[in-house]
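Practice problem: TerD family protein
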Amino acid sequence: MSTTTPSPLLSDSLRGLGLDAGTLFFALNYEFTRIEPKGLLKRFKKNQGAIDIDIACALYDDNCTISDIVWFKQLRDKAESVRHQGDSLNGKDRGEQAMYLAPLDQEQIRLYLDKIPAHITHIAMMANSYHGHPFSRVKKGEIHLSDDEGNRCFEVNLKQLPRDCQTLWVAHLRREVDDWHLTLQNLPLAAEDLATAAQQVAYELARALPIPQGL
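Answer key — structure tokens:
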């Protein structure tokens, strides 16, 4: 049976959260939501008439430098330890099995934690509305994280995000000696795309690094 512990203050080791630290599933599930484009020119742009949400994982080293980004433009990292299962353009195009509340998520990223290279110490999980539509405009939708046994540690309800939020730093994994520590961030970002969001997260991670003694 799956377990769910939704909390904006969630921060603990994966073992402390009751998760199997082997494989994690970072996933997105939302209902197809049509948006009427504004302006004559936008009416001719393909896929502008529906909300398109993308998820990504950015991998960082000890210095919070980006080592890899797994997203719709790059479905796997160099070590193939983080794998995107494919892009959905509107929450509907993956077929009926991928519709909201169905067994198959529209987008899913699998993290094989035992295969992640040793120099990777931080992993940021992010989401972005590709056309700039606020997440809260979806009819229904959520972002969640679970392990391969179905244990779910959080759900982010897209309808409950700030009304102008278009890019979100969802969660952060930090490598520990014998485990990973997970923090649910739920932090809106000013970035308009996932590549810029990864840079903003790098800045935030660097700010949180301890100051070396003697400086």
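Discussion: The chain is about 5% helix and 35% strand. Students who identified this feature from the tokens alone can consider the problem solved.
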